[in-house]
Amino acid sequence: METRRPTHGKSQPHGVALIASLLIMLLLLLMGMALVGLALTENKLATNTKNLNTAFYVAEAGVESLFVDLRALLASTPTPASSALPNGSNLASGGTRAPASPGYAFDFSGSPAATRVSYVRTAAPYNYLTTIDKGPYQGLNAFTTDYQISARVVGPLNTQARVSQVIQYQEIPLFQFGVFYGRGVDLEIAPGPPMIFNGRVHANSNLYVVANSGLQFDSFLTTAGSIYRYLKRDGTPQHYNNPLVKDANGNYQPLNFDHVSDVGFAGAWGESDWRAQALRTFGGKVLDTAMGVTEIIPPIPELFYNPSNPDVVAHQLIEKNVPGESAGLQAAKLYYQADLRIVDGVATLKDGSPANLSLCSGTVVTTKSFYDKREGKTMTATQVDVSALRTCPFLSGGGTLLYVSDGGFDKAVRLVNGSEVTAGGLTVVTDNPLYIQGDYNTINKQPSAVLADAITILSNNWGPNGSDAKGDQVTDNRPATNTTVNAAFALGPSAESTVGQGNGQLENVIRFLENWSNKTFTYRGSIISLWHSQRVTGDWRCCGSGGTHYYRAPNRNWGYDTLFDTSLPPGTPRAIAIAKGRWQG
């Protein structure tokens, strides 16, 4: 009998295959689920990244918006209270600058709020004296206030971004410049005799410079406009001789190219070529708008936001009070800072009380008349005897700011006997034209300044020669003698140069009425020109004795007074520069 044994030969492989298939399907399912999860994760990450980037852009826009608000506030209120700083209300939901991106909003929670402008220093005084250490104004002293602008944004899925930036509000005393010209008054330099400038030269508008017999610059040459190597009066550019500028190593290099013309003036070139060549040649000592130079804004509020007629607006610095003026304008006008005011013949102290000039030794104020041949008219001057002013008991020894004004276009101010000024320095301010007769601030020199509609120098020989009675005669009847003045000047030319009619350039912005042939006018100070003269508008005419000629030019021994590096005149105007720090996330 045959016995059959059970076998599994063909059924066993089928079972293994089924199990393997199930395992593969499970593995594929897991891989698919992983890929789907990865895709979802990547999509979420991409969405989060997009949301985060958008939040950062919105936050940066918020900081820029707060900066605009801060700048506007500082124009009208130079030293705002901490509570007055922009709080970002216009960035809030429903505000005029709320985010345009749906789902994003600025966060104002916390104390202090996450979105705000704040002082970096937590207690007054918020400003501090520092030396600017980089940029075109490096080396200048500035009263600096640091503001931190912060913005925090919350977006979809609770995406959050916070950025901040420190803004430095720098108040730069203007008399640290050898020459400073404001916007609307182009700076032109073209001296006939050799001239060396030992101080900084800066223009907020364009700078035109040529050399005749010799012109050297020992410090920075900067402009927020462009540098040109010709004069505006020349219809076709004439390059004359090359000025020399000390480079970063202290070596003189020729300025034989400019913003629009290549080396040797062989042809035109682009802004990038000019920038590269100037930086390579001078090592950062010659800079204009192509290198990022921006304006230093004189401290008149309207100059921050009104680009029209900046020279007319800047003239307010020396003008009388006007009822209803803003606090910002009052802070800028030197009238309000004056220790002594003589307005229309009436003398008052800073608090408005009468000033008894009879307490001073000698006669402080008299009225004199003389003929100004450039203007073609007789000027009636409020004459201030500086020697007598020094004896007034109501003036402190810490420096004096004197404001003088008289209405009318034939009125003027004249300073006499000024070889020694008041202790601590004397600043004289007037909206009239001003004449300085004789040596000024040469004995026991003090930090001093004169700010006026225009300034004319009358030599030491004006009085002895009786030139008050000879103003309408030929120039040679008014011979000058060597004269020295030590004072910062703020003044204006009568007009801008036009083709065929120059305005005398920098070397004639200080005016003369005598025959200075072979005589020297020595000047140490700082020349600031922010306006065109409004009271005296006669054209500059050079040079001779007959006809309409009114002067012969002096030898000019001019230079920046290094005394101003450590001691500034009373009431020195501070112009404004705003420096932005790096973004912080």
The number of helical elements comes to 5
Strand fraction: 25-35%
Shape: elongated
Chain-averaged pLDDT? 92
Strand order of the largest sheet: 16-12-9-6-31-28-25-23-21-17-18
Rg calc? 35 Å
The stretches of 5 or more residues where confidence is low (pLDDT under 50) are none
Task: Tell me the structural class.
Answer: alpha/beta
Q: Give the number of DSSP strands.
A: 33
How many independent structural domains?
3
Q: Biggest β-sheet, characterized?
A: 11 strands, mixed
Distance between the termini: 96 Å
Assembly state of the chains shown: single chain
Measured as a percent range, the helix fraction is 10-25%
Kindly describe this structure.
The chain is of the alpha/beta class and 585 residues long. It folds into three domains: 44-170, no CATH class; 179-291, no CATH class; 334-567, no CATH class. A hairpin with a 5-residue loop joins strand 14 and strand 15. It is 16% helix and 27% strand. The chain is elongated. The strands form six sheets. An eleven-stranded mixed beta sheet has the order 16-12-9-6-31-28-25-23-21-17-18. Strands 1, 2, 3, 4, 5 and 33 form a six-stranded antiparallel beta sheet that branches. The protein contains five helices and 33 strands. The mean pLDDT is 92.
Descriptive labels:
585 residues; alpha/beta; 11-stranded mixed β-sheet
What's the gist of this structure?
This protein has 585 residues and is of the alpha/beta class.
Write the layout of secondary structure elements.
Layout: H1 11-76, E1 105-106, E2 116-119, E3 127-131, E4 141-154, E5 160-173, E6 179-181, E7 187-189, E8 195-197, E9 201-203, E10 207-209, E11 215-217, E12 221-223, E13 227-228, E14 244-246, E15 252-254, H2 271-282, E16 286-287, H3 310-314, H4 327-332, E17 340-343, E18 346-349, E19 365-372, E20 377-385, H5 386-389, E21 400-405, E22 411-416, E23 426-430, E24 434-437, E25 449-451, E26 455-458, E27 483-486, E28 488-490, E29 511-512, E30 520-525, E31 527-529, E32 555-560, E33 574-584
